[in-house]
Design brief:
The structure is a single chain. The protein has 2 domains: 5-45, Arc Repressor Mutant, subunit A (Orthogonal Bundle); 58-136, Lrp/AsnC effector binding domain/regulation of amino acid metabolism (RAM) domain (Alpha-Beta Plaits, 2-Layer Sandwich). The chain is built from 5 helices and 4 strands. With 148 residues, it is an alpha+beta fold. One of its GO terms (cellular component) is cytosol. One of its GO terms (molecular function) is sequence-specific DNA binding. Pfam families: AsnC_trans_reg, HTH_24.
Length: 148
């Protein structure tokens, strides 16, 4: 799907405020509310917009620690391990990567002990997982899905 300037403006407005009204967006981009609705529906149908969520401040919700799990997986097992990780509540992101590790997963938890226990009791037991290295964050300066 080719996105024009109007589509990009609508996406930016929705990323900044998912509760923006159609009339406010219409005024901003110079379209009618039905025109904006049609464009948003098109963005949803084409998978550009994948849903609407509340933006959570992890630390204020008790998820004080973020870490990255660098996971080495046997060839052919990355998809299955990634699928298992995506079903875990505390996992925020899962990526297949090049380089030293097969997968990288971002996890948020209440404390270091919870992350260590999750890796020891779950991730390291998944079939095909060879090794898991944990990189704990010290401070998070920016955590956004995408900034348009």
């Amino acid at each position: 799907m080719d996105l024009d300037n109007v589509d990009m403006k609508l996406l930016k407005m929705l990323v900044e405020n998912g509760r923006a009204t159609l009339s406010k967006m219409a005024n901003e981009v110079g379209l009618s509310t039905s025109g904006v609705r049609r464009r948003i529906n098109n963005l949803e149908e084409n998978g550009v917009l994948q849903g609407y969520t509340a933006k959570l401040a992890p630390e204020k919700a008790g998820y004080d620690i973020a870490a990255f799990l660098n996971i080495d997986v046997k060839p052919g097992d990355a998809g299955r391990v990634a699928g298992a990780l995506t079903r875990c509540k505390s996992i925020c992101e899962v990526h297949k990567t090049t380089g030293d590790h097969s997968l990288i997963a971002k996890i948020r938890a209440e404390d270091r002990t919870e992350i260590s226990k999750f890796v020891e009791d779950r991730v390291s037991t998944y079939q095909g997982v060879r090794d898991v290295n944990i990189t704990m964050t010290i401070e998070t300066y920016k955590e956004e899905l995408i900034d348009l």
